[in-house]
Structure formats: C-alpha cells, structure tokens
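Teaching note: in complex prediction, the entire set of molecules is handled at once rather than each chain in isolation. The prompt given to students was simply: 'Predict the structure of this complex.' The entities are:
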Amino acid sequence: MEQIKVIVTGYDRYQGVDVNPSYLVPQALADRGVGGLNRGGTRLEDPLLGVDLDITAVTLPVSFAKAWPILHQAIERVEPDLVISTGLKRHARGISMERCAVNVKAVGDDRARQEGSGHGLTEPVDPDGPAAYWTRLPLRAILQEFGHCGIPATLSSDAGTYVCNALFYNLLGWATKHPEVLAGFVSLPLANENDRQGLGLPIEQQIRAVQEVVRETVRYYRQPSSSPILIA
Ligand code: PCA
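The expected output is the structure of the full assembly:
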C-alpha cells in the first residue's frame, strides 16, 4: 500500500469568533479520515484506492512570529506529501480556494481587520522574496468536485494580509524548494448552523469540503493531469 502523508492545519482561538471552523475541521479530518471510500469502499475512480492515508492535524497560533515556525517544525517531523492549510475568512460566503499568496503583511494594531484585503500599513512577509507564489493544488478539479457535492465555493486570489496569507506565503516559499510536496490554502467561512441567508456554512459542510480538497489533491498527486490547474 502506498502511504500518503497529509498535514492539515488550522488556527487556535481567534479574536471575536466563537467557533473557528479552522480549529475544528483539521481535527475532524484527523479523526474521521476523508470519507467512506477509503474505508473498505471499492469505487473504481476512488483516488484513495490502495492508499494508506495518514492525516496529521496541526493547530497554529494566530501569530505572525509563531505560525510558520510551528508548521515548519511539523513538516520536518512528519515529512508530508501534501500540506493543506485552512483559516477563517469572516466575510466569505462559501469556501475560498486560494490561488496565490502575496508578499504583503499588515502592520499596526488593527491587524485582525486585515483578514480581507487590507488598507492599513503593510510590509513584505519576506523582503527578499518574490511578489507572490502560486499554489500547485488542482483547484479546477476541486471546484468541480464541490459542484457535484453542492458545496458553495469560489476561487480567490486574496487570502488577506494577516496571518493566513503570511503563513501561506512561507509555506509556498518552502514548497518551491520541495517540489515533491503539494501545498495549498483553503479559506473557510464562519461556521453557520442555521441562518441560510447569512454568511457562512454549517461546520459539517466545511469538513466535507476539506475532505474533498484532500481527496482531489491525492488524485492529482498520484496522477498529475495535463488540464490547467488555475482558472484565469
Ligand atoms: N484567520 C486569520 C488568521 C486566523 C484565521 O483563522 C487570517 O485570515 O489571517
């Protein structure tokens, strides 16, 4: 059996948010796996057929200084094939599949407001780094899968200017030196259990979404396709 190791990350308590979905979702994946098919199912096109999937959940502090070093340590310990990071994007209506990380971070006291596109003072994440990095996750396949599952989602080129984007930037910078590893970022909306009109999605749907992200990324990892990953 081929072993594929996955790190799924999220964040610890986050100011002003009762339930941070990015705290719950990685843990749920580590506990439950990514769906029934890898537990005795035999659907032909199951990307997990013959795969021993090992998922490690990592909870990170909402801290520019600490988040990446902790993830980096976990990466060195686990030696993963895939790294999927998640974080809360409060104003999102559905799942946002992030295409790129930018070399910009908010400075100043109102950092927490910089989760979306920020307007305040900024500085580079890495003064010597490029303007942006692209993810190599199969975003098109993932969004197609979301369509089949009825999961509301969009492509995004903006993980904000706060810790999520900085972590993503550092992660993709690391991944350029480790091209055998696929890495990406999924922004999650608020956990919303009942108000269908408002922002957010129920937590179970968010868990399902990140399970699909892992499944489709494993499929691509095992058999890279020639179809374009990025949608212009
Ligand atoms: N979202 C923040 C940091 C922690 C989180 O869940 C962000 O968008 O950067």
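Point out the following to students. The chain has a mean pLDDT of 89. The pocket of pyroglutamic acid is lined by residues 11, 14, 20, 22, 62, 87-89, 115, 160, 162-164 (CB under 6 Å).
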